[in-house]
Automatic annotation (TrEMBL):
It comes from Clostridium thermobutyricum. This is Thioredoxin domain-containing protein. The keyword Nucleus does not apply. Keywords: Antioxidant, Disulfide bond, Oxidoreductase, Peroxidase, Redox-active center. The keyword Oxidoreductase applies.
Amino acid sequence: MKVIFDGVELELKDKEVVVGQDAPDFEVVDSELRKVTLKDTKGKRVFLAVPSVDTPVCDMEIRRFNKEAASLGDVTIYTISADLPFAQSRWCGNAGVDKVITLSDYNSRTFGKNYGVFIEEVALLSRAVFVVDENNKVIYVEYSKDASDHPDYDSVLELLRK
């Protein structure tokens, strides 16, 4: 799959995730550098893959999901980027983000590779949204064709409110 990043078309080399498959495992770290895997997450989950929390579109996306999180009940929202956990924590504090959990794929890149969003040339993740149900089945996938595009908020939120 190809993605536009900073105006340049790049190839995402890893396999795409599709609706209906089991959610791939991954190993990322939280703000305390503790390992987090798929097994450490429960219930209905949203995984937002973003290039960097410090960019304008990512900032708006995470703030939007943080705002919506209160009305989504038992849904947990995770933002995963290649940013260092310390930068993610600083950004969350400055942005007032307290309902979205940030996780870092800076070290192992397993989320990026297993979910088909790792951009090798820049060592960042492309923008995508994955919704996983209580049984670890993928029920929604959206890969942005351009990493600077916003996701389809309405479609994701409509699914989560069902």
